[in-house]
Write a structure and sequence with these properties.
The chain is of the alpha/beta class and 293 residues long. 40% of the residues lie in helices and 17% in strands. A six-stranded parallel sheet has the order 1-11-8-7-5-6. Strands 3-2-4 form a three-stranded parallel sheet, with helices on one face. Helix 2 links the parallel strand 2 and strand 3. It is globular. The structure holds guanine (GUN). Guanine binds next to strand 4 and helix 6.
Length: 293
């Protein structure tokens, strides 16, 4: 069993991006600038945004976090987005999800300029991805592709079972792994909460992407010998630790890992790859803008 070390791989990609940034600034250009909009007081969201800021610093980007209370109205948030769309000093931005219930997430996603949508959530970028056109790929699926690629994992003709159908992970992952490319060329099955006898699918999978948000759902007896298992889960469960919680993935590592050829740990697997993909997209947004000037 080989551990897919997302932390180490993300560090390597970050070093490559930092070198590109150094080349950019040595030409007299300002570095890429990523902004994040954070609404409310959700602990996990705050951690993600803090990690994004840290990664920006590490690669030499400018970064801004705009924080708002969860009482912000939809109209106010849309006007913040309008400001970022029109701010020439900002190359890309994200609105951290989830948003409070009184705000329509789709409206917010649609308001982001596709050229600054480094999350890859805008319908234009989703459409480009679906058609195989160039655009911004959503960070988590993109990070998983990079991990598969850097470890040279064979995906050609493999049966990939994706557990979860979210717009952020499951759906785009299914699209990307079925593409005629590497990593890709998989036969993809998407399982979800209404799938009957899910273990029948997972047992026939060469590659499993677990993205359902149910801690330790995937057990050893649901996995075939030699499978590649990617764990996207990051659920906080109360625990007797200094922070008062522990992070659990969607995979029961102790029973699944011994059967795998490759597996991601939680934490230190997919999480760091997601963040580095966002850095990559932001660099790309900056470069595209410079080319247009
Ligand atoms: N919430 C959970 N994952 C993500 C992500 O990739 N982007 C944003 N904006 N919010 C998220």
């Amino acid at each position: 069993m080989i551990l897919l070390n997302g932390k180490e791989t993300a560090e390597a990609v970050k070093r490559e991006i930092a070198e590109e940034v150094a080349r950019m600034t040595s030409r007299g250009e300002r570095p890429p600038h990523l902004a994040a909009v954070l609404v409310g007081d959700d602990g996990a969201s705050k951690t993600y945004v803090a990690n994004k800021e840290k990664a920006c610093k590490a690669v030499g980007f400018n970064s801004t976090v705009l924080t708002f209370p969860d009482t912000i109205s939809e109209a106010e948030l849309l006007s913040v987005i309008d400001g970022l769309n029109n701010n020439d000093e900002v190359d890309g931005f994200i609105v951290q999800l989830p948003l409070p219930k009184h705000i329509d997430e789709n409206k917010v996603i649609n308001a982001v300029s596709p050229e600054k949508d480094v999350d890859g959530f805008h319908p234009v970028n989703v459409g480009r991805m679906s058609l195989g056109e160039d655009g911004f790929l959503p960070a988590t699926p993109f990070g998983i592709l990079t991990l598969l690629e850097r470890y040279k994992i064979d995906t050609y003709g493999k049966h990939c079972v994706i557990m979860g159908r979210s717009n952020i992970v499951g759906r785009p992952m299914a699209n990307l792994l079925s593409r005629k490319s590497y990593p890709g060329d998989c036969t993809v099955t998407v399982c979800h909460s209404h799938t009957r006898n899910i273990e029948e699918y997972t047992r026939s999978a060469d590659i499993i992407i677990a993205a359902i948000g149910v801690p330790e759902f995937l057990k050893g007896d649901m996995v075939k010998e030699g499978a590649v298992v990617i764990d996207v889960g990051i659920t906080r469960v109360p625990a007797d630790t200094p922070k008062g919680y522990r992070i659990l993935g969607d995979v029961e590592f102790s029973s699944v890992a011994p059967k795998c050829s490759y597996i991601t740990p939680v934490p230190g697997g997919v999480g760091p790859m997601t963040i580095v993909s966002l850095m990559y997209n932001t660099f790309k947004a900056r470069e595209l803008k410079l080319k247009k000037q």
